[in-house]
UniProtKB/TrEMBL annotation:
Subcellular location: Membrane
UniProt cross-references to InterPro entries, sorted A to Z: O-antigen_ligase-rel_domated
Membrane-spanning segments: 7-28, 34-52, 64-83, 89-108, 120-144, 190-208, 215-243, 249-269, 321-344, 364-389
Protein name, entry field: Putative membrane protein
Any one Gene Ontology cellular component term annotated for this protein: membrane
Keyword field contains Transcription regulation: no
Primary residence: membrane
Recorded topology in the membrane: Multi-pass membrane protein
The O-antigen ligase-related domain, residue ranges: 214-342
UniProt keyword annotation of Transmembrane present: yes
Superkingdom classification of source: Bacteria
Key words of the record: Membrane, Transmembrane, Transmembrane helix
Species annotation: Streptococcus pneumoniae
Amino acid sequence: MHVRLDGLLDYIFLFSVIITCNTMYSTSPGFDGLGKWATLLLVVSVFLKLLISRISMKAINVIVSRSLIFILIILLIVILNGFKISETSFVYYFVLFPIFMMILQMYYDVNEIANLIRKFVRIIFLLAIGSLLFWLIGSVFHIISPTVYVLNYWNGGGIVEGYYNLHFEAQKIEILGAILIRNTGIFAEAPMWSLVLSLALIFQTLHIKKWNFTTWILIITIMTTTSTTGVYIIGLIFLYVLFSKTSGVKRYVSSLFILATICCFSILWDNKSGTGSATIRFDDYKAGFLAWQKSPIWGLGISDGLRAIEQHMDRTVRYNLGYSNSFFVVLAQGGIMLASYYFYPVIKIILNKFSSNDLKFSALLIIFLMITTIFIETYMFLFVISLYYSLDFGDDRDCHEKQYITN
């Protein structure tokens, strides 16, 4: 009974993290209140998990110290920027972040972090299968017709067609004159679905270390999102595997082929889609840098960071003020101080001589995702940061879980 409850709590926790990551359920008024229920489920699952688990005093000390440092940084940012912080942001930074740090550290401390990662991949695999099925028989071949119509606040309140509230056609793209419906799954936009799939692929190939049916389903689904970032993640993982498994001329010829394919795909995608995504992305980096320059150490505040970036955007190259990366939002909100806290675990893992190459490369890919995708202030962001803090904690421990993750 204890084992069943333990496993159920894991899935409830992960489901809550995923369902609140800019899915249609969290951005559409048609599912109003679901996000709050997901948050409640998350907190309850964490509380019950802590009740039935034992955690070492060393881990408790680490959790408390890291949480206090983070709260102090956020508190100083808020004070230095006129005490401006919304109720939602207050809960996110002062309550939920410490909770995530605590639960992920607990998973590591009781040797369950690998099982948690497997379950995350398992959930995303099932979502990928479902999205591929609906995308093919609905969006591509039109064997079935949409059954629901919902508002999508993420794209400005547009109407989105869906299938049984299990799959939504949130975005389209024009390629070579043809309109293609992007596979957005249950998410409000394709890049967010690609992000979650990319995280699952990173965990599957570099942590679980398996290339099987699940791996290829994740890769295929990423391709159907038509996300350039997802394609880069696939290409970089292939390059890493090639350099790890092959040698000589074969290594370099294969690597050049993969690089050429990625470059051609990206150029074709940007030029033929008519969106000018590369130009917009460059403008995002420029606007973010200009905003960060105003207050490089402590940032412009949790509430004003993104607003400051928007003021520097070039309206002549974009059709909306949507932003594309987490990195400069962090810098604009909290400057070098907040960015240092977020990036500390992945940088330490990369520089740690005891970390395996697989773990180091996964940390590099996490940095890449932060630079190319905006998912700050989502539970998924908290999950990723807390996960790598827990893995960083394990670098000086000799336990089976550490060996599984890093060797």
